[in-house]
Amino acid sequence: MQDKPYLRQYPDPSGHFGPFGGSDVPPDIARECARIQEAYLTIGNSYDFVSQLRDIRRHFQGRPTPVYYAKRLTDSIGGGRIYLKREDLNHTGAHKLNHCMGEALLASYLGKKKLIAETGAGQHGVALATAAAYFGMECEIHMGEVDIAKQHPNVIRMEVLGASVVPVTRGQATLKEAVDSAFEAWLADPEDSLYAIGSVVGPHPFPMMVRDFQAVVGVEAKAQFHDMMGVLPDNVVACVGGGSNAAGMFSAFIEEPCQLYAVEPLGTGPELGQHAASLMYGHVGDIHGFHTMVLTGEDGGPAPVYSVASGLDYPGVGPEHAYLHSSGRLNAVGATDDQTIRAFYALSRLEGIIPALESAHAVAYAMELARQKPHESILVNLSGRGDKDVDFVYEKYPPAEWA
Q: What is the mean pLDDT of residues 143-168?
C-alpha cells in the first residue's frame, strides 16, 4: 500500500513523475527555478497565501464554476450522459486564470515587478494580463505571429488590459517559438520578473505549480458531480496540448475508479506536421528543459506541429501526462479538425454554449465515447469559451456547410 496519496508522491523532490519531468537547464535558469521552487513550497503553503488566493477565486474569478448536464447534446446522440465542467464561465473565459492568479500572487510576495509568459490561443495571455492588472504589475506576452493573426480578439484584450504583446517570427511562429522567446526575455531580467508559464510543462517546479493551482477544477467537479448524482463519473475527459486544464481536472480522479481520457489534436492526418498528438505519436525526449513525450523530426529535434486550435499546437506534453499514460492510468485519444468543428457547432446549436476550439476537441471525443458507452456518464472539462474563435471558424468553416 502506498504511504502517501498520489499527489503527495508526484513529482518526487527532483521534479520527476516516474522517468519524466525533472530539470535540464543552464545554471542561470536552474538558480531561478530553485528560488521559485523554494518560494512556492514555503510562501505557497502559508495561511496568508492560501486564504488570499481563495478570496480571489471566490470574489474576483467567480468560482466555483458549475457542472452542467448537457441534456440536448446527450439526447441528440442517444448514448452516454455528457456533463460539462463550465470553466468557460471562469473570469476571462477559460481555466487559465486559475494558475495565473496563483503565479501572480506568488510573484507579488517575491517583490517582482513584471510578469512574462508565452501564449498560443491567447487565453493564457489574457489571463496573465488580467492578473498583472489586478496586482499592478507590468506584463509581457510572447505570441507567435501565426497565432496573433488567428486569435486577434485575444490580442486586443491583452493590449486593452495593459500588456505588451511581443510578436515571435522565428520557426513556425507558433507556441513552441513563443515559449523559447519568453524564456529568453525572463533570463534577461530574472531579478525583477517572473516567468508565469502557461501549462504543466517546462523544468521543475513549473509542472507541479501549475497542476496544483489548477487542481481546484478537479476538486470542485468531483464534489459537484457527486452532489448531483450520488456517485462519481464513469469517464473524465479533457483536451491536452501541454495539458494544464487536464492536469487540474484529472488530479481529483487519479485514485478513483474512473476512466481518464486525454484528447489530443489529430489535425488533418497522422503524418508529422499534420497533428500535435505527442502521447499518441511521440517519442521519449527532451523539450524546454524537461523529459517527456515529444514529436520529433528527422534531425531529432521537435517536429513541426499543427492543430486548428492554437492552444494545442505544442510538440510535447506535460511530464505528468506522459507518466500517467505510460503507466496505463491515462488513455490517450484524439479528435480531428473535422470532428472538432462539428462538435463546436453541435454544442453551440444544441446547448447555447460556444466552446473554445481547444475544448471542442474534448467535446468531440465525449460525443464519440457516448456512442460507445451508452449507459455511462462522461464528465468533460469545458476548459474555455469560443469568443476568441468565432471569427476564424465562421470564415473558414461557414455554419451553412458544417452545422
A: 94
Residues constituting the chain: 403
Task: Say how far apart CA 46 and CA 268 lie, in whole Å.
Answer: 47
46 and 172 housed in the same domain: yes
- Domain residue limits at 352: 64-93+215-402
Q: How many domains does the chain have?
A: 2
Domain for residue 3, yes or no?
A: no
Place of cell 506568488: 106
Q: 8 in a domain, yes or no?
A: no
> What are the backbone dihedrals phi and psi of residue 228, each rounded to the nearest 5 degrees, phi first?
-70, -45
Secondary structure (DSSP) of 275-325: ---HHHH-EEEEETTEEEEE-B-TTSSBPP---SSGGG--SB--HHHHHHH
Catalytic residue numbers, as ranges: 96, 118, 383
Q: Which tens digits make up the pLDDT trace of 191-213?
A: 899 999 999 999 999 999 999 99
Q: pTM for the whole thing?
A: 0.95
> What would the pLDDT profile of 242-296 be if each residue is shown by its tens digit?
999 999 999 999 999 999 999 999 999 999 999 999 999 999 999 999 999 999 9
- Do 120 and 314 form a contact (C-beta atoms < 8 A)? yes
